[in-house]
Amino acid sequence: MIVCERKPLPAILENLAGRRRAVVAGCSECVTVCHAGGEKEVALLRDLLLLARPDLEVDTIVLTRQCDGEFLEALDALAGEADCLISMACGVGAQFLAERYPCTWVFPAVDTRFGGGARRPGVWEERCGFCGDCVLHLTGGICPIIRCSKSLLNGPCGGSQQGKCEIDEAIECAWQKIHDRLEALGRLDLLDVVLPAKDWSRARDGGPRKLVREDVAL
Amino acid sequence: MSAGRSRLECLLEQGHFAVTGEVGPPQGAGAEGIRHHTALLKGVTDGQNLTDNQTAIVRLSSIAAAVHVLAAGGEPIIQMTCRDRNRIAMQSDLLGAYSLGARNLLCLTGDHQSFGNHATARNVFDLDSVQLVKMARELADPGIFQNGDPIAAEHRPRFFVGAAENPFAEPFAFRVRRLAKKVAAGARFIQTQAIFDLPRFARWMEMVRDAGLDRNTYILGGICPAKSFGALRHMSTVPGMVVPEALLARMKGVERKKQAEEGVKIAVEAVQELRRIPGVAGVHIMAIMWEEMVPRIVEEAGLLPRPL
Ligand code: SF4
Ligand code: SF4
């Protein structure tokens, strides 16, 4: 999922200077699961805003999916009344709102952190950097692009020590994990291959990405 | 300006036990320090490494520093990390460096920027060090850019390309496999991380020999003289460095005033020990901020005069 984290309240309030009527718009997908912008968080943010700004009018809504045009209509009526929209979805959702309402200010209330998952309640970890050309089949199912601090394809670097990454003892060295897993699977031979320079054009380096699939197009 | 081959490469090919040193470019635009350190090192070492924004601290560029080293009569070894440049900038810089007379290149991954003085910078890591070795070799032979485009035969940069290896990092068993990968990618020489744990290094060399790698690349063992107990203890905390307890205790047991002297002794012993290990082709002495001690270490280790 896309893991998000709510911005500090002062940062949200700063964006509301001079505004009179806002809609806090959540989403029932990723941000609900990671407790950043679902029903509970939307209601909480409304209460916090009203405490800090009693003059403000605040409506709330939780959209089925903010990153999907077909679910935005539900917001039209409220958006028409407001002078700003506060999105509690990821950066994709916030942009979909901005596109739909060209004359209304849209603010993000969360920081979109990473593509990851919950290790246990309250702990999320990054797993994918959306490189567009997955190499997990070569690395034992452990992503070297995002889990190695240097995105090494022929790691580990010289800083790997006791299974930890050189940049922080709290971070596991991805290449130690790759090594151990391939060893357990009897496939250390995969590590003898010099992996060539990556084609980054399928990652963000190639410019904004777009995917068109005729087979599912209407 | 040296038009021909790398002097270091020739010496190693002739079977000399090589000695390389290190010059840290300054955090400013002055070249006096580089000239001064070159003067100190050139008669006692066969090549001088120019670090590339070491520990991610902004410094005068390693390639510009190499030009000062050349002008002062030295034999520069340019260090290049993958942290700050993509393949376009790296190739461009390699063409430039060669045109300026640099002949030796050490390919490194690079310390993460979080260690340095610009922790909020974006890093690049378009290539890793293994891929950089390969790219640098391919510029000369078959004479192509990374994308496959040819380079005119008379204008190919023919660097003596090396890489670093850390026998003390983990996974230990994998370090030799990774070295093999670097050699397969084209690394002609290897400079190792500073060696304090000689038995562990000897074990690693045994694995290196078993894999036949010492016959395909020149291995220069890293020596890092410590000025004091504090300096040695600090080194023991650097990621990827291993300093045995016994060595720390030995240094600690020496009166503070005499610790520098002990540091030289430890370094000299290590050089001598390394010379006895089959497959070791030379030493790389990293005495940053203590360059003036290098001539003594080389002399006391019995490595003078250097071949011409
Ligand atoms: S290799 Fe690329 S696509 Fe696969 S998990 Fe890593 S970043 Fe994601
Ligand atoms: S220590 Fe491991 S995870 Fe960290 S940068 Fe080096 S190889 Fe990558």
Describe this structure in words.
The complex is a heterodimer of chains A (218) and B (308). The two termini of chain A are 26 Å apart. Chain A folds into two domains: 2-113, Response regulator (Rossmann fold, 3-Layer(aba) Sandwich); 133-197, no CATH class. Chain A contains seven helices and nine strands. The mean pLDDT of chain A is 97. Chain A has helices at 9-15, 30-33, 39-52, 76-81, 91-100, 144-147, 174-184; strands at residues 2-6, 21-27, 57-63, 84-87, 105-108, 110-120, 123-128, 164-165, 168-172. Chain A is an alpha/beta fold and 218 residues long. In chain A, strand 8 and strand 9 (168-172) form a beta hairpin. In chain A, the strands form three sheets. A four-stranded parallel beta sheet of chain A has the order 3-2-4-5, sandwiched between helices. With 308 residues, chain B is an alpha/beta fold. Chain B has one domain (7-300): TIM Barrel. In chain B, 40% of the residues lie in helices and 15% in strands. Chain B is built from eleven helices and eight strands. Chain B has helices spanning 7-13, 32-42, 62-71, 87-99, 129-140, 172-185, 198-210, 229-237, 245-252, 259-276, 294-300, and strands spanning 18-23, 47-50, 76-81, 104-108, 160-165, 189-194, 218-223, 280-285. An eight-stranded parallel β-barrel of chain B has the order 1-2-3-4-5-6-7-8, surrounded by six helices. In chain B, helix 10 (259-276) packs across helix 11 (294-300). Chain B is globular, with a radius of gyration of 19 Å. The two termini of chain B are 17 Å apart. The mean pLDDT of chain B is 96. Bound molecules: iron/sulfur cluster (2 copies).
